[in-house]
């Protein structure tokens, strides 16, 4: 007797995500294709505030106004941040345990939201389990947005179905947080307009390093690429856009950055194998401007930005010691 129609007749599913492991065979957590995150409600009482007035009145009665507003602003400025990163951002103001305690307190009224992370396949269970992620909750977003109306802050609903973005911002925040700790970054902006026109697609971020006795100040236009995205076509378009802007204006105008300093494009990747693949496919060194790679795999080994950088050269991805960091 033959099989019923439609049973086992579907074509096999093809692998759609190309994986770029580290040298030890593992995959970076913050670029893992199996990564998921979800909002985790606090245990016990949950009384979310739904107006900026309600949030402000509670804050003014809290007795911790300055500490709480500082913490909310730090989270808002980071967009999406791991608890470990948040403790580092706040370390000059309070202890790690004080930061964690305050975060738990602020979850009750939805000033902040905690997102739990996991990998969806059991075979990935041996990978490192990072700390939870934090974003502004509804009350926190309403309060901070009313306090800083001209600044961009991400609404909490954005993160509910956007694990890919959560990975992207936490990975980029490692550069930002380390730069703050080492005092090597003069300025940082998320999604600034470029080219003097809002229609040009914005980079993930732009940073400007401080000048030192060895290296002049440098603006880096950051493009974070991820395995779960069709990143080659995306990067190709971005590199061509920067080439066009430089050829036309001699400088890529960046919103909020007034100083005219040297510029380069920083391609932020999770592994050396990913950088090698991009180098082979796109040959970034052939553009008229400098392209460098920031590689998480190396940063995880050294915890230093300066030794986690590679130059795009005709001979390939060449590791350098970047004194700007």
From TrEMBL:
UniProt superkingdom: Bacteria
Keyword annotations of the record: Plasmid
Protein name: Uncharacterized protein
Source organism (scientific name): Planococcus lenghuensis
């Amino acid at each position: 007797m033959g099989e019923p129609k439609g049973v086992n007749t579907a074509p096999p599913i093809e692998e759609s995500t190309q994986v770029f492991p580290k040298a030890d065979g593992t995959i970076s957590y913050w670029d893992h294709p199996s990564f998921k995150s979800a909002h985790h409600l606090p245990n016990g009482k949950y009384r979310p505030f739904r107006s900026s007035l309600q949030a402000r009145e509670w804050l003014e009665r809290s007795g911790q106004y300055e500490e709480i507003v500082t913490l909310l602003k730090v989270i808002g400025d980071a967009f999406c941040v791991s608890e470990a990163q948040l403790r580092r951002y706040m370390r000059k103001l309070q202890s790690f345990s004080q930061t964690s305690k305050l975060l738990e307190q602020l979850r009750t009224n939805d000033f902040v939201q905690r997102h739990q992370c996991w990998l969806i396949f059991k075979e990935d269970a041996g990978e490192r389990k990072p700390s939870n992620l934090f974003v502004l909750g509804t009350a926190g977003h309403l309060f901070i947005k009313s306090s800083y109306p001209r600044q961009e802050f991400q609404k909490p609903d954005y993160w509910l179905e956007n694990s890919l973005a959560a990975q992207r911002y936490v990975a980029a925040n490692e550069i930002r947080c380390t730069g703050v700790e080492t005092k090597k970054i003069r300025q940082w902006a998320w999604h600034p307009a470029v080219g003097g026109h809002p229609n040009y697609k914005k980079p993930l971020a732009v940073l400007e390093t401080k000048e030192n006795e060895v290296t002049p100040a440098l603006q880096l236009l950051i493009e974070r690429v991820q395995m779960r995205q069709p990143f080659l076509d995306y990067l190709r378009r971005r590199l061509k856009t920067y080439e066009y802007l430089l050829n036309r204006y001699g400088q890529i105008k960046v919103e909020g950055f007034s100083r005219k300093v040297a510029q380069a494009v920083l391609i932020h990747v999770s592994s050396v194998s990913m950088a090698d693949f991009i180098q082979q496919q796109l040959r970034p060194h052939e553009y008229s401007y400098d392209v460098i790679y920031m590689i998480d795999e190396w940063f995880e080994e050294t915890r230093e930005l300066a030794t986690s950088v590679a130059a795009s050269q005709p001979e390939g991805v060449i590791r350098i010691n970047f004194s700007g960091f």
